[in-house]
Amino acid sequence: MADHSSQRGVRHAAAVLSRALLCLTLLGSVLLLGPAATAAPAVGDPDDPFPASSAFTELQIGTVTASLGLTNVGAFNAPASFDPVAEGYPAPGAIPADWPAETLGYAGSIPARDAEGRTVLTYCIDLLTETESGVTYERGEWNEANVPNLGYVAYILQNYYPSEPEPAGVADNVKSAAVQSAIWFFSDNLVLDPTSRPQLFALTSDIVADAIANGPAVEPAQPNLSISPDSAAAPSTGELVGPFTVTANGPSILRAADGVELFADAAGTQPVLEGATVQPGAQLWARSIDSTAAPGFSLQRTETVRESTVYLYDGQTEGFENAQKLILAQDSTIAAVASVRITRFAAGAIEVTKTISGTGAGLQGAVEVLVSCTPPGGGAVIERRLQIPAGTAAGTSSATFSGLPAESQCTITEPENGDNGRVAVVSSSIEPGNVIVSTGDTAPVAATNEYALAYGGIEVTKTITGAAAGLQGAIVVLVSCTPPDGGETIERTLEIPAGTAAGTQSVTVEDLLAGSECTVTEPEDGDNGQVSVTSSTIEPGTVTITEDETAAVQATNEYGRSVGGLRLTKVIGGPAAGEQGEVILDIDCDDAEGAFDQQFVIPAGSLAGGYATTVTGIPTGTTCDITETANGVTEEVVLSTPSTIEPAPVTILDDATAEVTATNTYRLREISDDDETDDDESGGSGGGYDDYLTGTGAPAGPSWALGLGLLAAGTAVLIARRRTLRDR
Fold first, then answer.
1. CA-closest candidate to residue 312, choices 140, 132, 148
2. Packing angle between helix 172-188 and helix 198-214, nearest 10 degrees?
3. Where are the beta strands (DSSP E) in 389-489?
């Protein structure tokens, strides 16, 4: 399993002692034949006690007895160049004479028990490595075992003893020996001597042939119980390591914790004791507490473990650096174990004390002190940080970094010193800058920073532009700066007189406390009714003052000439409205080019009502006069009252339309009307009929009677004509 992969490298360091693995009765016969190249399990007394197992043990070998297999089995060792699958089991008489001969002390199944004492059967898949009763094992994966042809071994275990009663009619110990011999053929190139045990040779040959004919089986699925990661290094100073995450199909039991304390939280406030139930997905943290034990912990859960699961030496049996690899003989309900190995290392600590002072203390940015340690012998650099938030007041802050490997070379630096443009770092020190960590000791490091207030300024430049530049009113630009401590606001103004030509003006405010927030506004923008502000910008509108810098602000106003309009409405009324002649009004504006002068004509005979015309785009301040050059009076129609034009003249205002109303009221000319008045109203000159009636135009001399007769006749005609007009 992947969670056991790193555990293979943790093995007892004691020298391997020479072991006589065969019982004394077998040893003599082996010695007569010469030294054995194989290391089959020793046959012993079933009453031999089991040695104590560790927290990591999943299986422990029991006592091998003759009833489980066969002893004194003759065999040959095929060379490494021999391919069991390609060449098959040699026939009797076909075994080369130069193959070394062996006598196996034992061939058969190997009993083992789990953590609960349940017994299972296993087979050896590593003939050349020693093992014995009491050696402890844990589950592994095929690739960890690194044994050839395990797929063919798995086929044999699925179809032969003890999973199946094959071969039929044969004693169980002989079946066991045949299966083991067939396994060794695939795993170790072992071929039985056909003359030593003919029946065993034949059974083994048949099993091998069957496996080759049917092909290899696949690796079985492992029980779903694991802990990740499955190893860690813990300092002797007692810092927690983790988290270790549990994966399982259900709850498991904390089986043992050797040399460590376990907790369910990173702070180490929730201890987890031996025998506790641990749920899937739980996280655990461990602390090393024992300098002599091999630290670690394990969880166990009863699972169905498939045959062909390999078991590898867990490195916990005294005197064994390595041990024979095993494979489970049949499906078994046993305790599955997942474990974590903790490597304890000597450690020390460094305590960093940071002192902040000066007139600028409390205005600085974030401060970071970095401790970088290179372990003895190299390896990944260990980093620890003391971080002090921005704005921390004058005083000291400290942190102790423990769990650093002894003899580590540590360098202390300050990647962030708090210089944020609001303060200046007057002085900075770290003593000492380099430390060698000592076991169990805490090395002190003093770091200091003194801060002073920093100052800066702001310059505001005002640009005047546009077609109407120079016609604008007064401009006022206001600079308001609030200190970072919330003190009294500082204000400066840039005043630009009315009529200032296109160009730039500027104002500079100096000695502002760094960190001050300055806002630039324009209370007066020069819009005076004659000009309009076509665009206005202040970039940026707000700035933060920084150390030894003058912030630049650009303010721009573009001016265009303001315009308005004029609406002239001619109102025609009176009883003779509609009988009048042509009416003409002249609009005369005092602009230089006369571009807005117009003539408004109301055709003769226009009915009573209002007639309007509008002139737009007239520059503000322009004066426009309206006169009536033709008032519509005719021989038959006169004005009832004098014409009116109100107001006249008129001044054009910004973005407004001036309203002017001209009114004419008409009536029919009457006989009693004064000739002079009629003549004036009709636009004529000289005496007339009415003049004559009033005596102002009476003829001289004696012929007055003739004139009177003519007047009477004319009067009759005039009366008849006016009656006709009135009847219309």
1. 140
2. 60
3. 395-405, 409-417, 423-431, 434-436, 442-453, 455-465, 475-482
As a dihedral over the C-alpha atoms of residue 398, residue 402, residue 407, residue 413, rounded to 10 degrees, the angle is -30
Q: Give the pair of three-digit tokens for residue 32.
A: 């007569």
Cα dihedral 36, 40, 43, 47 sign: positive
The per-residue pLDDT for 709 is 38
How many CA atoms lie less than 13 Å away from 154 in the CB half-sphere?
A: 18
Q: Are 188 and 100 in contact (CB under 8 A)?
A: no
Around Cβ 155, how many Cβ atoms within 10 Å? Answer: 23
Q: Above 80 in pLDDT, residue 47?
A: no
**Cα–Cα distance between 182 and 51 in angstroms, integer?**
31
- Tokens representing residue 196 in the block: 């030593």
Residues 537-587 pLDDT 10s:
999 999 998 888 899 999 999 998 888 899 999 999 999 999 999 999 999
41's CB contacts (< 8 A; 6+ apart) are: 21, 61, 64, 106, 110, 124, 131, 132, 324
Q: Say whether domain 347-453 belongs to CATH 2.60.40.
A: yes
pLDDT of residue 452: 93
- Assigned CATH for 455-560: 2.60.40
Residue 15 has pLDDT above 80, yes or no: no
HSE value, Cβ hemisphere, 13 Å, CA-based, for 574: 25
Is residue 287 a contact partner of residue 104, using CB atoms and an 8 Å limit?
Answer: no
pLDDT digits (tens, 9 = 90+) for 500-542: 999 999 999 998 988 899 999 999 999 887 888 989 999 999 9
pLDDT tens per residue across span 630-654: 999 999 999 999 999 999 899 988 8
Domain ranges of the chain: 2-214, 347-453, 455-560, 563-682, 700-727
Q: When comparing pLDDT for 718 and 416, which is higher?
A: 416
User: Quick one: tokens of 396?
Assistant: 């000291």
Bridging pattern class, strands 382-388 and 637-639: unpaired
200-237 pLDDT tens trace: 999 999 999 999 999 999 999 989 999 999 999 999 99
Amino acid at 627: T
User: How far apart are alpha carbons 614 and 567 in whole angstroms?
Assistant: 4
pLDDT at 726: 41
pLDDT, tens digit (0-9, with 9 covering 90-100), for 594-616: 888 999 999 999 999 999 999 99
Give the whole-angstrom CA distance, residue 439 versus residue 420: 39
**Matching fold, domains 347-453 and 455-560:** yes
616 in Cβ contact with 598 (< 8 Å): no
Please tell me the distance from the alpha carbon of residue 544 to that of residue 551, in angstroms, as a whole number: 8
C-alpha pair distances (Å), 524 with each of 10, 459, 492: 83, 19, 14
Residue 683: how many other CB atoms lie within 10 Å = 13
Separation of alpha carbons 262 and 287, rounded Å: 7
Superfamily (CATH H level) for 563-682: Collagen-binding surface protein Cna, B-type domain (2.60.40.1140)
